[in-house]
User: What shape does this take?
Amino acid sequence: MPHARISPESPIGIFDSGIGGLTVVKAVQAALPAERIIYFGDTARVPYGPKSQVTIRRYAREDTEILMKHQPKMIIVACNTVSALALDVVEEAAGEIPVIGVLKAGAELASRRSGSGRIGVIGTQATIGSNAYACAIQEEDPAIEVISKACPLFVPLAEEGFIDHAATRLVAEEYLAPLVASRIDTLVLGCTHYPILKSMIASIAGPGIDIIDSAEAVADKTRALLAAQGMLNPGTGAAMPHLLVSDLPQKFRELYRLFMGTELPDVELVGV
Amino acid sequence: MPHARISPESPIGIFDSGIGGLTVVKAVQAALPAERIIYFGDTARVPYGPKSQVTIRRYAREDTEILMKHQPKMIIVACNTVSALALDVVEEAAGEIPVIGVLKAGAELASRRSGSGRIGVIGTQATIGSNAYACAIQEEDPAIEVISKACPLFVPLAEEGFIDHAATRLVAEEYLAPLVASRIDTLVLGCTHYPILKSMIASIAGPGIDIIDSAEAVADKTRALLAAQGMLNPGTGAAMPHLLVSDLPQKFRELYRLFMGTELPDVELVGV
Assistant: This one.
């Protein structure tokens, strides 16, 4: 019998290639403080962005299977790269529970917000190379023009803590120049790390460009989905997220603080 | 019977966490043009530098086992991170054939070259955090002072092709400032990617600092070892290296050109 052990009290499963998906955890916690969250970060194989589709799809299946052992009521794919290249793999491994990917949520919000019909998207090499954001946005509105740009250095710069650094500004100006020149009115942050650099990106983009954070978009979509299915957790307590990782490097504690703004809780190490 | 199938004609096995070890392949080819080389790059799990020792040691064993299937006459660990944290694991998995790591080769050369007894070392977070270069250098000469600095952005900057970029210069000036201030006379490039940025690093370090490329050091040590064992390949033909990778991302061809200066030959995909 499907869903035999799934109830409104079941957790929401969220996974990402690494720690970046914590921006999604934070947004879901803010939107849905009563929900239990179980998060898996594949820190042993991070990053997915520069890797091939075949490898990303294999990892996506394994990541989903790790979460499924905890009987979540739904799965959020916090990884833009997996959302772009392997969402079908996740849906298959998730069986009958719903799956939401950051990419589609961000694409939907961007197409609703854009007035001019010119949207910029930035992300990893794999996400941009897949053209998945452009396809998802044009599925919402085929008249929208999408200008995409891979920004491979943003993740390492954010993780190095070069948030407000002159080197990051130089790199960002170079990456964003073709988007600004294309007169976009909306810019999608198509990678979970990029909200860390949001204020610098916004200052280079200028006041005429609306920045879309896919983490917030996916949190809104999650609330709507759970409400429609009568699956919102009726509780009131906001428990700490249950954290699973495939590697626990020295820097993890520092990165957790960067992303979540709080101290690292207990984490569970799982094999991949 | 050990070595039953090992002969001077057997290949030299070389591995790295990714494509960076090709700088070692290039140096070995230059020093020993008659040798056959089999190279494994763990492109599905790269980078190792930010990961934990437990995970790095597991990967090191698996990488060695992949090369051992090809019956090499020796193994070169081109990965500084593995050389620092898991050389014993490689030696165990390699059985009776010799193993040389870039780290010890670089440390030996640096300690021979330094006049002032003040040596700088730069590398990934894991390599520097392990303190392995400092230990290896002080094993050569306990009086030498070693000043180390992790430079996590150098690999992504090199892979993005930002070789002569103002952002790279800003980052490099910041990373190298404490080393230059410490009046070192020798600087070890403790990561296989760093030779790509050698001229910028040298220009910031200034003419008084001798730059040690561990790839060249390991090639010299390999020649001496094979000569001593009567295991130099007597042939004359310089075959292309046999390339094994665990992932074949879009960017591989471009990166191969960056590291080797030639077009990508056929590669074989292996599972990890």
About this structure: The CA atoms of residues 17 and 257 of chain B lie 18 Å apart. Strands of chain B lie at 12-16, 37-41, 74-77, 99-101, 118-123, 145-150, 186-189, 210-213, 242-245, 267-269.
